[in-house]
Amino acid sequence: MFLSFNLFIVLAHITLAVARRSVNRYQDLVANTIPAGQRHNDTLATRTSLQIKKPNRSRRTGAKQVARLQNRSRLASESSTPARHPRVNAAPTPQPTGPSSVSTTVHITSVTDFALLLPVNDGELISDAESDAVAYCTIGSNCQNTFPADFVTGAVVSEASDGSYIQITGCLDPGKFHFAQDDAGGQMDVRFPNGAKCTFGGYGASFIEQVEPSANRFCLRCCASANDQVNCNSHNDKAGCPIAVPGTYDFGGVSCS
Questions:
Q1: Residue 52 confidence (pLDDT)
Q2: CA pair distance 147, 245, nearest whole angstrom
Q3: Which of 11, 84, 87, 196 is most buried, taking the most CB atoms under 10 A from its CB?
Q4: Contacts for 117 with CB less than 8 Å, ≥ 6 apart
């Protein structure tokens, strides 16, 4: 019985030794089969995969970026939208009113020989004088009423190269005439006053005259033909001289542009 127990102990030691040798051989086999560099990379990959991933941060749009986007959108919109130009009223010129009259006839010969239709009553607005304005002219011209001395402070006469019109543009001193105070002005043409005409084109031919006391300015353009809405557009009656009759309104020390 004692012998059997000792034999059992010896067999147990032998079995344990064999098991340890098998484990060591397996470890050596793994070590010899997998290259060292690959074992290192696998370790880094495993370590990286185990790290806690940080949540993705949403990109916030700052105020400057918003402004850039809005400006880019505005520029794109402007480039795609065609420019709008004001429409020109090319409706026919109204027919003259009343028979031709010498008292309502204007002319342009030179800066020292021309006439304008002006209010006949003291303090009358030009817009109210459309029905009763009369011709006033430079001293020495052949007309009944003349401008006061130093009324015209600067003027220039010009003509179209094709002879379609003649015009005079200039500055005036409203204090020399009986204009209404702070009168913004108005327009005379073939409609008003009755029988109005310009000698350049004759009765019925288009002409426009604007006098603007508050701007110290006047203009007169006489066209050679009737219903000339290209050169004598009577529908620019509220536009002012620089638009209705483009020309010179600066004369050195005198300006009314």
A1: 43
A2: 22
A3: 196
A4: 104, 106, 133, 134, 135, 136, 188, 193, 196, 209
